[in-house]
UniProtKB/TrEMBL annotation:
Function: Promotes chloroplast protein synthesis. May act as a fidelity factor of the translation reaction, by catalyzing a one-codon backward translocation of tRNAs on improperly translocated ribosomes.
CDD domains: EF4_II, EF4_III, LepA, lepA_C
PANTHER family for this protein: TRANSLATION FACTOR GUF1 HOMOLOG, CHLOROPLASTIC, TRANSLATION FACTOR GUF1-RELATED
Stated name of the protein: Translation factor GUF1 homolog, chloroplastic
Subcellular locations according to the entry: Plastid, Chloroplast
EC number: 3.6.5.n1
Pfam families, per the entry: EFG_C, GTP_EFTU, GTP_EFTU_D2, LepA_C
Binding positions for GTP per the UniProt entry: 13-20, 79-83, 133-136
Protein's organism: Coccomyxa subellipsoidea (strain C-169) (Green microalga)
Entry keyword annotation includes Translocase: no
Domain of life of the organism encoding this protein: Eukaryota
Catalytic reaction equation(s): GTP + H2O = GDP + phosphate + H(+)
Protein's UniProt keywords contain rRNA processing: no
Amino acid sequence: MRRERIRNFSIIAHIDHGKSTLADQLLMRTKTVDDRDMQAQFLDGMDLERERGITIKLNQARMKYTASDGLTYALNLIDTPGHVDFSYEVSRSLAACEGCLLVVDASQGVEAQTLANVYIALENELEIIPVLNKIDLPGADPDRVRREVEEVVGLDCSDAIMASAKQGIGIDEILEEVVRRVPPPPDNRHKPLRALIFDSYYDPYKGVIVYFRVVDGQMVPGDVVRLMNTGKEYQVDEVGVLAPKQVPVDALYAGEVGYLAASIKAVADARVGDTITLKKGGTAEALDGYQEVQPMVFCGLFPTDADQFSDLREALGRLQLNDAALQYEPEVSSAMGFGFRCGFLGLLHMEIVQERLEREYDLDLITTAPTVVYKCLRAGGEEMNVDNPCNLPDKHDNLQEPYCRMEIITPKDFVGPIMELAQQRRGDFIDMTYLTETRTTLVYDLPLAEVVTDFFDEMKSRSRGYASMEYHITGYRKNDLVRLDIKINGETADPLASIVHRDNSYRVGRALVKRLKELIPRQQFKIPIQAAIGSRVIASESISALRKDVLAKCYGGDVSRKKKLLKKQAKGKKRMKSLGRVDVPQEAFMAVLSLG
Ligand code: GDP
Ligand code: MG
């Protein structure tokens, strides 16, 4: 395809504003996917994504479109993930484009993620085409939302496109505007090869399939390429375009997007944001913006059945082939036995991995409460990262925790309850501005640990679902933090330890032992439960002993009934781990998260 007829663009939107529905419409209208093959939301391939209505992994599709000028264009749609955990991936996808559609729900308006995405688009100097979606809804108020986008985003919306992705309204206009307003890629064919990786996935037959944008030069099969940040070298087996199925081509030139296969073993070897160049005659100057993503949230994963340990290791290994951000290493706990300490980008990423392990690999897991990574100075003066509260040394100094800057957009009626929430979660108020007459932006600096628990859910419930939020990590801060230990039946239960602010420690300690008392089933003996800081017990409760043996009821009864009861018990026991001779159910490991 001639360079002048290429358009590379993305769709950005707040979650649920209709990005995937619109992408489907574009694919259908251009006959890239025919109606018969059209599975709703083609671009959201994974089951999990479809169930949760989120886009986790990005994808791309090349559409052929004959515009009203009679010429045929190649429109490359690069999809972006729709969750804050994946904002780095969003930024790399947008870096591969010249323009984007900004989709805003005309019955809602600008939300936190709308803004965050617009900032990334502006950083990448993209042409932004505003689309007001869902105009079919009775509650749609495109004029109000148009003004809002103009005021808040500072974007001229006089020619915003009125659309309904659901009813197929405005789709032709969108395609025409992409052709008319998104600039073609610049002419960089004669420079040495530089290509930007914006996604990859593992294919068991071809090895890793790398999605990239050729920024400079060209790539052909047989080229020996070097990935500039990992330093790895490969011979390219195949290059092609996504139409949207893989179609091999002879070459890809500057301005085009496509894929390559080069028998790469794991996605960690071809990281998002890395630059591909030629081994011979390449460049020494990598493209800007590469970051090695760091896991922010850690938890322990333990099989309920010790025999599943090696299955768990294998499953994590397979998932990691396809997920460069997933980290894991073996963890042995006297209480829990053998398992893994795993690192994730955020809570959503963590949930996705857990769910896949359980669904696709049929594992029964106990998950310990997620924590962030703290930094401290050990007694000897050596700095240490603590991704597991029970590893925090008793003697330490200068304990620091990660902070984030959060932007919340809310109808003004809910400002009070949301400010209260942010304050409870140790937030520092930074700013409040009126977005419009009825809506407000709140800015807070918050400890990440307070955000990765149930902040999002709380914010939603306090605002009846109307508030939205976005955050990014800003750095570490020293705080007066302590390790809160839990003792069950006199033994310290490592996996229940947490790190809390000293001012909250009594409240959390008391609430936690109370909650554990409710969650841990009674047993044959009395069970003391205590919360302690160092050697000082700050709260205690006890679970009284079961009065009757369950089996006693069956005395003299028939054997099959007894068996049934035992079986039922065994089933109920499934998600339990024995800590200090006490069976502790999965919910108890997460109890600390729900204390508020
Ligand atoms: P995404 O999260 O931005 O990808 O949003 P989706 O495309 O998954 O859409 C979210 C919800 O809005 C789905 O239930 C869609 O059916 C619905 N939706 C999308 N576009 C429209 C529209 O134009 N009109 C109406 N009424 N609903 C829409
Ligand atoms: Mg979607």
